[in-house]
Amino acid sequence: MSLPFAAGGPVIPSFGSPHTFACERANRVFCWGWFKQNWAGTLWPALRQHVALTLIAVVIGFTISMALALIAHRYRRAEQPLIWFTSFLYTIPSLALFELLVPVPGLGLSLTTAEVALVAYTLLILFRNILTGLRNVPEEVRDAARGMGMSRRQMLLRVELPLALPAIIAGLRIATVSTIALATIAALIVNQGLGVPILSAINNSTGPFKTELIAAGALAVLLAIAADGLLVGAQRLLTPWVRARAA
Amino acid sequence: MHNFIDAFQFIGRNGELPGQPHFTTLSYYALGTLKIALIAMIISLVIALPIGVWLGHIHRGSFVAINLGNIGRALPSLAVLAIGVAFLGIGLKNVLLALVVLAVPPIITNAYVGLDQVDPDLVDAARGMGMTGWQILWRVELPLSIPLVMAGVRTAALFVISTTTISALTGYSDSLGEIINDEASYHLSGVLGAAICIAAIAIVVELLLAAAQRLMTPAALRRQGLGTDEELFLTLGVDRVGVI
Amino acid sequence: MKFSRMHTGRVITALAVVAIAGGYGVASSAADGATHSRTSARTAAALPGTGKPAITLGDKNFPEEYILGDLYQQALEAKGYKVNLKPNLGSTEIAWKALQSGQIQAYPEYDGTLLATIAGITKNAANAKAEAAETVSWLGKHGYAFTNVTPFTDSDAIAVLKTYAKAHGLTTIGDLKKLGSAVKLGGAAEFSTRYPDGLIGLHKIYKVFPTFDPLTISSFYTALDSDQVNAAVVFTTDPPLKTGKYVVLKDTKFIFGFQNVGLVVKQSVATEEGSAFTATVNAVSKLLTQPAIIALNSAVEVDDQNAAAVAKAFLKANHLL
Lengths: 247, 244, 321
Prior knowledge:
CATH topology of the largest domain in chain C: D-Maltodextrin-Binding Protein, domain 2
Structural class of chain B: mainly alpha
Oligomer: heterotrimer
Number of domains of chain C: 2
Strand order of the largest sheet of chain C: 7-6-8-5-9
CATH architecture of the largest domain in chain C: 3-Layer(aba) Sandwich
CATH class of the largest domain in chain C: Alpha Beta
Low-confidence stretches of chain B: 234-244
Mean pLDDT of chain C: 84
Low-confidence stretches of chain C: 29-41
Largest interface: A-C, 54 and 59 residues
Distance between the termini of chain B: 35 Å
Number of helices of chain B: 11
Mean pLDDT of chain B: 82
Largest sheet of chain C: 5 strands, mixed
CATH topology of chain B: MetI-like fold
Largest sheet of chain B: none
Distance between the termini of chain C: 58 Å
Structural class of chain C: alpha/beta
Shape of chain B: elongated
CATH superfamily of chain B: MetI-like
Number of strands of chain C: 10
Number of strands of chain B: 0
Radius of gyration of chain B: 21 Å
Helix content of chain C: 40-55%
CATH class of chain B: Mainly Alpha
């Protein structure tokens, strides 16, 4: 081909040809061509990151909540303060919490900051559900266990936790679905997750780009439904004695 | 930590920026946030409460009512707002539409469960006393279901305040989110100041609604320990766990 | 199916550990943006970049910056350098902070913005060359190098509909004076606080006092089209400007200054990476004329193509890839 400045300027190829961009230019509701073209480079990485964001947040949130719930289960007086603390975190609107964490030394605009915020939102649901599950173990069952000579630890592991599983998993379902929805906001802090294509679609200088919005939004919702379904399946597997519910 | 000090200074001067017109101060945006949130809540309550209460009263539609809550939870607020704006343009009406879409599910779900779980023996007793369906609804079922209904209202209120601020990212909002989105003008101190304000507003609203819930709960229930959300939650147990 | 409780516990713990580790792994690798491509045709030893330390390149939060980041990254990697791209960092302030804290070692910056926002120098230079020179010298004093600037300048500009310009006889910004506050000017919220390249500049230098309407970035042109505003503060490399529907009012007093792009690099890093590094960056910058960047922007913003793909096509067509 000719030298770059043969005509006094660089070569400007026709980008993306032979594909014409009529659909994108008209900003029609959904352009399949765009979707197929950008799945690998934009949507799939965003989806993967979103799964990662959610998974980390829920796992860490669950660990912390379990610890807190066990403490509250053992020491009744700790329950009220812990409820207040987790409720307080839950009440702070997501945009605010993400921004408030940024200046904290060591956090800044990083994945960790986003995770701290997401974890904070899972605590209330998980803490309350685990605690309720543990509390609702019938007293007779506990008496029987004690009568059998079980230690506190054994009772917890072999009786109380298994019986609390339905409540725990119900909490996990709610926490996971909420986190998937919330993780879109993380895109304000760090370039991760399905919030990134949503924001970039909104900020398109020729008007919000519908296809990308719908694609990313639909992926988030589908992810939530899939996660919910997986957890329902896990519950059926782990607690076959619980009658399957419609909800 | 000097960032937080700067943030409080920002709040102290009401977020005034030199040379800026008066309508971009912190108080303006805070009031704007409350205004939008209030309108959205009123619309949502008008739509959702009757539906949820009615379905619970006639004990029908549990599948829809419960799953509506699940689906509502799964909707990313940013996406809902963005799609509303993309298809309907920028403007208050479209933001309100998105807010209502997000607020209605938890209200319906909680109202449904609240009415549905009223002790059937009490309802029978009331019927035995000669009360009509309407009277049972107003004098027995609704008072007994206030804790759960209010739980739904509180959840919806939190959603709405949170999403109102997010709506600044999608164009119009006149809410505190505008400041957060405009880091270039307000700098980090302003963004933090606005974030602190939003958090404070949310906490105050939550406390007010909790107090209202306590007041509205019939004395008898309060004595049973169902006055606050937490007591309610722990008393009603596993079955109701799905309705946060 | 019956799971023994212990097994369940162990399985769950194992899954949790895998989930967290895997999650962080996926997240951080995905954060590195485009994958590293190597030209397989040449041997590694021939490339000037082999053996040089990896460099983290960032870009700011709008499409033109994404394109620039991708262009520089791909061109450098074609020469054997290892470049980790951290796209979409945020605004100017945030990108600069990231550079100072070492989170990134380089990012593409507009010389006018750097001087005004970071250096606090609000007086515009006489011409583009002087602006670039001033930027080089300021950055030099602070330990940063600034590569040769691009031919294109992405300055703010005031645009009106062609029909509006014709109806009111407008060719320069100063012509708006006669319309007083009847002219509704739309722009990003931050425009209203900037001087001289903002509303305050319009007041003081042009004595133009329009009614300002803060808009979001995606609605400048739609607002013009729908008559929500009469004039809008846009950027000179916006794709819609080439349609001929809009007229950019001449900035006769140069309040909007010059905004050519160069790569800000930590001086020590630039030296370490060698002269071929700077030469490669300069070669890319040289290609970015006004028509070129508008075409690139158009492909990304109007046709909604992927910035990395567009950058690749451009570099390939110009033999830098």
